[in-house]
Design brief:
single chain, 753 residues, alpha/beta, Nucleotidyltransferase, domain 5, 5-stranded mixed barrel, 47% helix, YqgF/RNaseH-like_dom
């Protein structure tokens, strides 16, 4: 199939024009990235968005892979001397890899089988005679093939050999395989049962101990759960339709008449189905259902990741970050507005040390010394206790105290990137730094962590790892380039995801920055070793230089359009700086005047948007969130409580919410809204702040049921309008003078007040 045929097919599938597809593929083949194409080549593609461009990229690769396989199949059959014009046409017309492999199956080199053994005994003519089902005298004709030397001593030996050959013909018939495959998918079921004796050990799979549901409608999370249970040897999993139904379908396609020969064909059908076709179809359908489940799970994961990466940043403020704990204390770091490390200390405000006074004094001293504007507290062990301590020590009211999701911080702290940045600090200090930076800019910090470790996925270790990686990489790249990257402060990890760069060029940028100081303009980026014209074209528009020599360097206007913006400014009698400052003036630019062969209205509108809000962060503004005071542990919960929470993860069956008790609660799909909800993403997003009602508390199994309905108990007896109940807090015990007090005195002496 030519590329033009591919373009037509893709255009039809995506509902776009052939020209849009061909132009997009041309850009991709030249090395352009998805973010660059969708942002800076709208006139070329007809304003296709990132999703459409990525879909074209993936589909054209699938079709090209299919073409390569067709070439290999044609070569193999031709070498066997069996390629006919009709067969060649069928191979060229195959639209999927499955259809192609069905066509190739009879010609595929295979190990020695019952059928090939029967052919070696000379029984293929008998098989052909039987399969024709013409009503011949079967016993008489079969007797002609008896040959003791070949192992055909009886009539049954001859008939059995012929049936073995027929069974393979049926198994290799493309039409039969197509129909049986459709039957498996449309009418087949997953049947899951517990392996006897594994009931207690595999209790987490209790829902699937005796479970059955259609393959066609089984949701992703249940498919992956059953497969995992089978893999861990707790469940037995069967797939497929009823045997009688399958045999009836095949017989309707290959059995003719009602005589001795057709009876033999029926026997061959039954044997071939059980021995060959059913196992083959089970494998195919398992792969098919797994692929669908993977696709849905990866989609959910990618969307959750996008929402988490694009969470509102606090911005450039001096931050104190605390990694809370009990016995080992709280690790505390102070960071400058750009996230630079300033100081590390440890405090012990919680049990068992309970050095409250010394800890409070040290925190207050460091807040004053470093001009701390916000305190980030990790949401792990001792988080609520540490939050209560910090809020109770009398800090200035303008110092924000924020709970931060620390999922993945420990992964980062042990990573090569963390060791490279902080070689002299241990894991706990690096973890605290990560918590603080995550508050300042979630995107910049989270890109340092393997997305699978962030905690927003569903069965992430069970899905196709290559497909997962590609999807998550696309998501991270989309988010990074959508927000833009400050080249003078960005980490190597963040720069790696900028369009056109990658790890090597990202490191070269950091090295250049370290040796030559900050970049003064975008043109200087070209001086980075090995960063050629193509990489510059792809990356420049996404790299920002705040307070650079050219005011446009802080915007998303691509350098290739600087001349155009200069013309706009000159036509208004202004310089570019004034044009950027005056939104009213930029709004009066007659865009139609600047349309030419290269630049159309889509690009001009994008430029105008940038002129009215140059370099604006597209993420939402940061809002402080507070958990319910006094509700710190699962034991503090009561059914009917209304509590504030934060969405931490979204699945097909609902959303998980952090309510500050070290165990996320589940809002089931049916409890997300007062209306029917098919997809949780319709109503919630990761990091969204919500109010929930506690509907169930199962302390032994650490399960919390929540609802976002106005009245989750409307179908139950009224509970008397319970109000959220507050947990009890004991009076803080003050500790005496200790080593922390001495340390504080030394710090004051060393650094001053």
């Amino acid at each position: 199939m030519t590329d033009l045929n591919h373009y037509s097919k893709i255009a039809s599938e995506l509902g776009v024009q052939v020209k849009q597809v061909s132009s997009t593929v041309a850009l991709l083949d030249e090395g352009a990235t998805v973010p660059f194409i969708s942002r800076y080549r709208k006139e070329v593609t007809g304003s296709l968005d990132e999703v459409q461009v990525a879909a074209i990229r993936d589909r054209v690769q699938q079709l090209r892979d299919l073409d390569k396989r067709k070439e290999a199949v044609l070569k193999s059959i031709k070498e066997q001397g069996k390629l006919t014009p009709e067969l060649e046409d069928k191979i060229h017309e195959a639209e999927t890899m499955t259809i192609l492999e069905d066509i190739y199956l009879p010609y595929k080199p295979k190990r020695r089988t019952k059928g090939t053994v029967a052919k070696e005994k000379g029984l293929e003519p008998l098989a052909q005679l039987i399969f024709e089902q013409s009503g011949v005298d079967l016993e008489k004709r079969a007797a002609e093939f008896l040959d003791e030397e070949k192992g055909v001593a009886t009539l049954e030996d001859a008939l059995q050999g012929a049936r073995d050959i027929i069974a393979e013909w049926i198994n290799e018939d493309a039409d039969v395989r197509k129909k049986v495959r459709e039957l498996f998918i449309e009418e087949g079921k997953f049947v899951s049962k517990v392996i006897p004796g594994k009931e207690e050990e595999g209790i987490k799979y209790k829902d699937y101990f005796d479970w059955s549901e259609p393959i066609k409608t089984a949701p992703s999370h249940r498919v992956l759960a059953m497969r995992r249970g089978e893999k861990e040897l707790f469940l037995m999993l069967d797939t497929g339709p009823g045997e009688a139904e399958a045999l009836s379908l095949i017989e309707s396609m290959v059995v003719k008449g009602n005589h001795a020969s057709s009876d033999q064909v029926k026997l061959a059908v039954k044997d071939g189905y059980k021995r060959l076709l059913k196992p083959s179809m089970e494998t195919e359908v398992r792969l098919y259902s797994k692929g669908k489940a993977d696709e849905q799970a990866i989609k959910v994961f990618a969307e959750n990741l996008r929402q988490l990466l694009l969470a509102a940043p606090l911005g450039e403020k001096a931050v104190m970050a605390i990694d809370p704990g009990f016995r080992t204390g709280c690790k505390m770091v102070c960071l400058g507005p750009q996230g630079q490390f300033l100081q590390y200390e440890a405090i012990y405000p919680n049990e068992p040390q309970r050095k409250t006074a010394e800890s409070a004094a040290l925190v207050k001293y460091l807040v004053e010394r470093h001009g701390i504007e916000a305190i980030a507290i990790g949401n792990g062990t001792a988080s609520r206790e540490t939050e209560a301590f910090v809020k109770g020590i009398g800090l200035p009211k303008d110092v924000l105290v924020v709970m931060v999701n620390e999922s993945g911080a420990s992964i980062y702290s042990a990573s090569e990137a963390a060791r490279e940045e902080f070689p002299d600090f241990d894991l706990t200090v690096r973890g605290a730094v990560s918590i603080g930076r995550r508050l300042m800019d979630p995107l910049a910090e989270l890109v340092k962590i393997d997305p699978k470790s962030i905690g927003v996925g569903q069965y992430q270790h069970d899905v196709d790892q290559n497909a997962l990686k590609n999807s998550l990489d696309d998501t991270v790249m989309s988010c990074v380039n959508g927000v833009g990257v400050e080249i003078n402060t960005a980490s190597k990890q963040l720069l790696t995801y900028v369009s056109g760069l990658g790890p090597a060029l990202a490191q070269n940028i950091v090295n250049y920055r370290n040796e030559n100081g900050p970049f003064r303009n975008r043109e200087e980026i070209k001086k980075v070793p090995r960063l050629g014209g193509k990489a510059f074209e792809q990356a420049a528009g996404f790299l920002r230089i705040r307070n650079g020599e050219n005011p446009l360097d802080a915007s998303a206007v691509h350098p290739e359009r600087y001349g155009l913006v200069n013309n706009m400014a000159q036509d208004l009698g202004l310089d570019v700086g004034d044009l950027l400052k005056d939104k009213e003036v930029s709004g009066k630019i007659p865009l139609e005047k600047y349309v030419d062969d290269e630049v159309g209205m889509p690009t001009l509108r994008d430029i105008l948007d940038e002129l009215t809000k140059p370099g604006r962060d597209p993420r939402e503004n940061f809002e402080v969130f507070q958990f319910q005071e006094g509700v710190n542990e699962i034991g503090d919960l009561k059914v009917g409580m209304k509590l504030p929470g934060i969405i931490t993860n979204i699945t097909q069956f609902g959303a998980f919410v952090d309510i500050g008790v070290h165990q996320d609660g589940l809002v089931h799909l049916s409890q997300l809204a007062d209306r029917f909800v098919k997809d949780p993403n319709e109503v919630v997003a990761v990091s969204q702040k919500v109010e929930v009602t506690v509907t169930e508390v199962d302390i032994p199994r650490k399960r919390i049921g929540l609802s976002m309905k106005a009245d989750p108990f409307s179908d139950q007896p009224k509970r008397g309008g319970q109000k959220p109940q507050q947990g009890k807090s004991g009076k803080k015990r003050q500790s005496g003078q200790g080593d922390m007090a001495e340390k504080l005195a030394l710090l004051k002496q060393k650094f001053g007040k």
